[in-house]
Structure formats: structure tokens, C-alpha cells
Fold this sequence. Notes:
Shape: elongated
Number of domains: 1
Number of helices: 3
Amino acid sequence: MKRLRTLSSLLVGALTILAGKTAFAEGSAKSAAKGFHLEMGPQLLIPTDGGPMGGGLDVEARYGIGISDHFVIGPGARASGYIISSQAVALLTPVVRLSFPIGPVGPYLFGGGGFGFRGRLKDVVGEDDDYRNKGLALLGGAGLMIHLGPILGVGAEASYETILKTDFKVFALKPMIEFFF
Length: 181
């Protein structure tokens, strides 16, 4: 747990410094949070049971809709693939992001639920079709985007992810790059 707090603090601190030095025009986060987005980044997984850390990659596509001067809601979908403790994990989840744009910075909350699969690496190629490895995947968290221009942003997020009825329960940290269209 201490590792998670330290890593989270370092990420937020670095992004806050970066925001002041590289972000573009005032008010850009609100305009950048609207429209189509494609985001991707590597993830560091920290199991809640104290086991060895893992990693992976996720990709998210969403469409941001301005609901007021201060909020943007973004429905979308996320696909994630991880390797942790000699297991392969895949999550396919619809997600919703609520952004609170402030100048060039866009803090946000997100959550979603969908399909999750967890299995030993050798089982992924079809040797085992154990129903206990599949289930409802849930995730939720918060992040911070820094909008560097009209089509590019960088950021970081922290989340909790689980597949119900399995032992997959992790905290995840992710630096990311995002493209706006």
C-alpha cells in the first residue's frame, strides 16, 4: 500500500509541474475534452494481496460531450491486456469519464463494468476453458490530463480493477498519451 501512495504522489507531482510549463492556451482543457478521443498507455499493476507486480497495456476510445461550462461526460470503451503472476488478464469494459476541465488541466473520474478473463498463460491458448476464470470486470479511478495542443495530451491515472469471483484485484497506475479528433 505504501508503494502505491509513493508512486501516485510522484506521478501527480510530476504532472503538476509539467502542466505549468508545457500546457497550451487557457480554456483548452474544456475544448479538448469534447469530441472523439483515443488514449493508450502502459499500466503497472499492484495486487491487493501483496503479490508480485504486473504490467500491461490498455486502449480507450470515447466521445466527450459538454454538459455544462464545468463538466464533460465521455462514454466509451476500454480494452486492457495484462500479465501478472504468470497469468494473462483481459478486460473489455464500457466506461464513462466525468472531466472537470480547469484551464489547460483536466482532472477526471471514471468507472465501468464489462467482461473479464483471467487464466494461466498456458491456458490462454485453449488448454483450459474454466468458467471460474471469467466474470464481471469492474474498474474505477481518477486521473489528470494535461493538454499540450489541440490534438495531444499526456496524463496519468490511478484505478482499482477487479474481476468478480476471481482473485484478480489490483490497483493500477498508468501514464498515458491521448489524441483528440
